Amino acid sequence: MDEQSTNKAARRNDWTRRTFMSTLGVTGIAGVSMNVQASSDNDDSETDYFTNEQMLDCLHGREIAGGNGYESDIGLNDADTIVEDQDSLLDALDSDADVIGIDGDTEIDLSGEDYELTDQTIVSDRGVDGSSGALLYTTDHGEDSPAWDGGSTGRGVITVDGDSRISGIRYRGPYHDHYDNEEYPGYIPLDDGDSYAERQEMRQERYARGMSILSSDVEVDNCEIYGWPMQAIAIGTSSIVVSPHLHHLYGHDCMMVGAGYVIDVFNGHPTIEMSYFNATCHSVSGFGHTECGYTLEDCLFGPLTYSHAVDMHSLAENGYEGDLTAGDRVEVRRCTFTFTHNIDGQNAQAIAFRGYPEDIYLTEDSWFFHDADGDNSIENVANSSNEPVPYRQVNVGSGWHGWYVSGNHYGPEEPPESEIGAPVNLPI
Q1: What pLDDT is recorded for position 154?
Q2: What domain of life does the native source organism fall in (predicted)?
Q3: Which of 75, 51, 164 is nearest to 127 (CA)?
Q4: If DSSP codes are grouped into helix, strand and coil, which group holds residue 427?
Q5: 10-residue block means of pLDDT along the chain (428 residues)?
Q6: Angle (nearest 5°) at CA 391 between 238 and 153
Q7: Which residue in 178, 254, 179 sits closest to 211, CA to CA?
Q8: Rounded to whole angstroms, how far apart are CA atoms 66 and 59?
Q9: Which of 229, 204, 241, 218 is nearest to 116 (CA)?
Q10: CB of 267 within 8 A of CB of 240?
C-alpha cells in the first residue's frame, strides 16, 4: 500500500461509524419527516426517510461536504489580494495575483458578466470559526445571459482553466428559492404549453450553468453549490477531455424537471470525493462519450431527488443516432444513498446507466436504502423506471452488460462493516 492509500485508510479509521437512536420528529428545510408514506402504483409500504436537516446534523464536524469538519490546506492568509465586489474581482482575475481571497461575510453579485479563472485560486473561509464562506451569486439565466452563453455546448458564468482552484465559497445560481411547493426549493416543473417542444423552449429560458472546467489541473473543494437549474459544474467538452478533482462539496437544490445536475461530465474522468448531494434531478451525470466517466467515492446522497442520483446518458440520447455507448468507465465506491422514492412518491433508483460502457461500470461497497437480498439478487428492470430496485441499466434489454457489483449493502439497517457506505453517522 502506497503512502497516499495508507493515509486515506488512517483517515477512514477516524471516521468510525456509530449508530444512535433518534426520536426527534423534526421537519427539515426540505419538509420531509422521519417517517412518511411514500406510495406509488407498485409500492404502498411505509419507508423511513431522513430530513435534510438531520443529514446536515450528522455531517456537522465531519469532513464530508466540507465546512466546519474540513481542514483546508489553503486559506485567506494565503491570499495575494482581497476582493469585495464585482469590479475588484474582475481586476484581480486580470492581474498577476496567484491567490484571490474573499472574506467570509462578503457577497458578490456576478450578474451581467462572465469570468475566466486561469492559473489562479479563489479562496474564502467556509467552515473557519463558523463562517459560511463568501457568497458568489448570479441572477442571470437564459440564452442571452452569460450563464447560458453558447447554449448546451457553451460556457458557464466562470470558465476554469489551467492550474486553478476554487475553495471555501458558496456559489448560488438563479433559482435557489424558486418553488411551486415550499418543500422543494430549486424545483421547477415543466411549463404549460401546447406541445413538448413549446414547453422545452419555455424551460430553456431558465437554464444556467455555474462553471465550465477545461483543465485536468483544476480543483474545486469545500464549496456549497446550489440553485443551478441546468449544471452547477460542467466538465470538459466534446473535444476537450479533462479529469479535475472535486471534493468536500455540498451540492443541493438543483432540481429542474429533466435537468438540474451538480456535476455534469461532458468528457473526461473527474474524481469526486467526500461530498453530500441533495435535491437534484441527477447529482452526477455524464454525456456518454467514449472517454466520459467518473470515480465517485465516499459520498452521501440525501433524502430528496427528482430522479436517480447517479447517471450516465447514452450517445443515442444526445444526438448520436443508434449509438448506445454510455460512457467509458464509471466507478462508484463507498457511497450511501438514503432515498428510495422521488419527490412525487414514485420508486426511484439510486443509479441508472443508459447503455453499454466502453470499458466497465463498477459499484462496490456502497449502501443502498432499497431492499434487496444481496448483489446477486437484483435483476435489471432496464427501461421500467417505476420499480423498487437500487439501480438499472437502460436500453440493453435483460441482464447486466459490463456492470459489476460487489460488497454492497441493501436496506435501511446499518451495514455490518464500517467500510461499506460513506463515512458518516446516520440516526438509524
Answers
A1: 86
A2: Archaea
A3: 75
A4: coil
A5: 40 31 26 31 50 92 95 98 99 99 99 98 98 98 92 91 99 84 76 81 90 99 97 97 99 92 98 98 98 99 96 96 97 98 95 98 98 96 93 96 98 93 84
A6: 15
A7: 254
A8: 9
A9: 218
A10: yes
Q: Are 85 and 128 in contact (CB under 8 A)?
A: no
d(CA 277, CA 337): 10
Which cell goes with 420? Answer: 461499506
Please tell me the distance from the alpha carbon of residue 407 to that of residue 300, in angstroms, as a whole number: 17
Instruction: Look up residue 210 and give its three cell numbers.
Output: 455555474
Per the CB < 8 A criterion, the answer to whether 316 and 324 are in contact is yes
d(CA 348, CA 332): 18
Apex CA 314: angle with CA 310 and CA 317, to 5°?
Answer: 110
Residues 6 or more apart from 2 whose CB is under 8 A from it? none
How big is the chain, counted in residues?
428
Q: How far apart are CA 256 and CA 306, in angstroms?
A: 8
List, in order, residues 6 or more apart from 365 with CB less than 8 Å away.
333, 334, 406, 407, 408, 419, 420, 421
